[in-house]
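Weekly structure sync, notes
Attendees: PL (lead), two postdocs, one rotation student
Agenda item 3: pending single-chain targets
PL asked that the sequence for the first pending target be pasted directly into the notes so everyone works from the same version. It is reproduced below exactly as submitted, 211 residues in total.
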Amino acid sequence: MLVDDHEMVVAGLKAMLAPFRGRVRVVGEAIGADEAVGVVGGLTPDIVLCDVRMQGASGLDLCRTLRTRDPNCKVVLLSVYDDEQYLFQALRAGASGYLLKKISGDELVRQLELAHSGVTVIDTALAGRAVDTAARLQSNEFWPGARHGLTHRESEVLSLIVTGLSNRGIATRLVVSDETIKSHLRSIYRKLGVSDRAGAVATALREGIYQ
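Predicted structure, written out during the meeting:
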């Protein structure tokens, strides 16, 4: 079953999987996590493939809900964010995998087959970085903001905000899009319990959570 908050993405995933009908079949789809909860109950799919970041409830929230209702439910999260902290959150939520949206169709099918067999599937490059991060966490080598739930990239963005860079300036520095920075900012505000840039800067300075 496919879940995303954009119909275009769901349609794209269906088209990507269509050539592999002999190995995988799309039995249902939902736009957003709230709709997905109801649809899953009527379908009982082998795997729920959903986006991590969605409007309203996130893919992580959906994963927790589905796993609470059925501990055997397999949820594979698909994301554009190659940040290991999202991976850690996914695994803590009980996900059966964390894959990046740049994945090819044949590789996606192969990973879904592995997840169906009980293997936890993780993007190869991200898995390598996650091992290093886990080792650092075990050694208490936290990045600024880690204890507040900020991912490593969110901590970078917050630090650049403190220096006074604009969204465009941060995007240029990190070689990402303006929309990606806006998405990171929304997440930072939510995790720090603030509503705007000024509040985030004030919290960062007060708590010392910037580089």
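Discussion points:
- Residues 124-138 form the longest helix (15 residues).
- The chain has ten helices and six strands.
Action: rotation student to compare against the earlier draft before next sync.
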